[in-house]
Amino acid sequence: MTYTTGAVGRACARASTTQEHPLLAVRARAYRLAAVALAAAALPAAALPAAALPGTAPTALGTDAAGHGRPAAVAPAATGASDDPVDYAVAVDESASLGAGELDREKDAVAAIAVSDPSPRSRMVVFGFADARTATQSPVDEVCPMRQLDTVGREQIAECAGQLRERTPQGGSGTDFISAVRQGVTRLKEAPDSGRPRVLFLLTDGYLDVKDSYRYRGLDDRTRDEQADEDLTRALREAADAKVQIRPLGFGRAVDRKRLDEMAAGGYRNGCRDLPQTRPQAEVVDAENLGRALETAFAAARCLYRDPGSRTRPPGDLSVRVSPLATEGTIVVSKGDPLVTATYYDPEGHKVTEPGDGAGDGESSFEFTGRGKPVESLRITRPLAGTWRVHLDAPAGHRDRTASISVLWQGAVRSDIRLEKPSPSAGERTRVEVEVLTRAGVKLDERDLRGITVSGQLTGKGFTQKVPITLTDDGRGQDEHGLDGVFSGTVTVPRDATGDLLFSSTVESVGLRPDTRSYPTGIAPLNAKFGAVLDIPAATVHPGGRVTGTLKVSNKDTAAHTVRLAVADAEGTGLSVDPAEVPVEPGAARTLDVTVRVADADGLGAPVDDGTALGGKVTAADGTRVLDDAPLSITVTAVPSLPRRIWDAWWQLIVPGVFVLVAVVAALLSRRRVKRLRLAPGGLLLELLDADGIPVCSRKAKTGRGNRYEFDLVDAATDNPRIERRDRGTYAVRRDLAGGVVLRAGGQGERTLRLGEQLALTGTLSLRIADGRGRRPVTGRRGGPSAGGRSRTPGRATARAGASAATDHTGSYPASAPEQEHPDI
User: Fold this and answer.
1) Is 61 helix (H, G, I), strand (E, B) or coil?
2) Using one digit for the tens of pLDDT, what is the confidence trace for 133-152?
3) Who's near 158: CB < 8 A, 6+ residues apart?
4) What beta strand segments (E) does 168-240 contain?
């Protein structure tokens, strides 16, 4: 296909495209509406295994059969993977209340939903609705039976959406939501309940109108409206029982937002751990926000987090931030035009080119989807946190549509629960802290932390009611520093507590797998005679390294005790502590070394980049009672390479050497640049002369490809010959170091000329090259030819006289008439 850059060519191209098939125009509008939604099959085929992250599986300090302290795994709560399929029903209002053109907008929205869902395993059914005036009519028109949203299914739905029709009064033009909701619930319930989310998109203006409905015939207005409201409430309850989310999209000249909100609230609302951000909400849509509404719905159905980025017209740059919480995600670029190209750069400036390439830390993997289409995406596992940049390019004539970018991600966090008093007494208040850690120890900022909630509770022997623990990160009350990733609060141990205590916390957010941690301990006896204090310093080590701390113990009891040491909340990080047990005789008090060992690179459970942080803590316990704990702050860095070791040993000599080398290279480059400037053709004036030596056209040269000015002789056999700049032209000119010029003329090779020297090009035309500073070029002859084939005017005679007077080679000629600049110059 040949693309024309002119306005007429573009119009013709668009017209011919839409005439190939009557439904292509609908599809084209749908693709434009979906340009800010997800690309088909945009997200990864499977979630990143938890084992890929250090400490992803929540752990707690438990005890084995012998009562020894040990890390114990806590099963994470289930959550949706990023490509989990969803079942959709799309109900389209065909009533007369919408207004002219609104049904076409709804058809476009149906096609946009079909092409935008991220999973090719999702399914979708489409039907229109109005009402029924007679017993033989149906309020529902099912135009697309349930189909899988693979490539063929998406196309089929875009086509059958064209069968939606505007109802006439005789065919039932009211608005029967009750039938629409029940039809959607029925179709979505037909498939076995496999745990797939069920979503009913309701495209309508929100006005319930059943005054002419056969179902409510014979009722007065008040009774009819009350009965219809009761029936709608009952239908919404049925939707909630069937776990069908209702997401109304408002269309029409006027929208009943209150009614739409009621229907959104009436369906199923607990699909994603009952987090408020994922609950279905009504949205009044137009061409600008339809994509955002769909993208939000798709993400919420799967418990994913959506973060919008910037917008621009190509050529230009888009940017979007990927949270350090993300373990997998998709950057979606909505270009609006398939001829726009996108180039992706990670936060460290590395270009992502082919599938599987590593960028940044070298551990990420990538897959492109939808290239050459209006919407494309980059799927990433282990994405590098930070701002990703996408550069857009577009050919002329394809730069009028605004492009946008967004990212959808899911992630995992580790957390660590700590007590101010590791073994509190009954009735005593203690401070609880829960720190949120990322997989690589990246510090979270406000955008990450504001969406995170942390809840806690206390259970134990002697009391039956769970004691809630309020944990916040707002810098108020018991929380010392707001938005620092440490959630704090206090709890009072019940006075009737008699033994073991279990403090627990859960970190959750949209897009995150919930992380639950536990801190088992026991009631501290009054006037305890046995105690221990741990101190583990912060350290940076290589794989296989170790960190040494201290343990102080004091036993004023008459019986011997044993302190058991264990690493908690760090499963999968390859940490261990030595010694594991410390016996303490009666009356003894001593201080001894404690060593935390770091596994080698294969045993760490995570790649080592420039500073992988390992969390967790070391606990010292006497049976089930925790005597003390020490949070770990260990950063693991890769073993330095040979070049790094050379740098560390010889940098004092390397740095001065580099400065000398840079100075030498700079001098050479400067000389080269001066030479290039002396050879550059900029400022030369190229004059085309006729057989009488009269200038008929001139051009001022500019520096072009290869430091040459390349051009062609155009219309040489006509009365209007001229010079036109062209890449890879027949002729090329540059200066030489002796003050002249070098001219390449086709296959004749290069020839050196003096400034002002005349060279014959054809039988009637010759070329003269002069110094054009302060001169204005002439574009060609003005006016038409005379009877003799030449224009004879007083001005021409003057020009001839001036030409005859020009005899030196410096190009000192009369100034030509002002030119109209050629677009190629």
Assistant:
1) strand
2) 998 999 999 999 999 988 78
3) 23, 26, 27, 30, 110, 111, 114, 115
4) 198-204
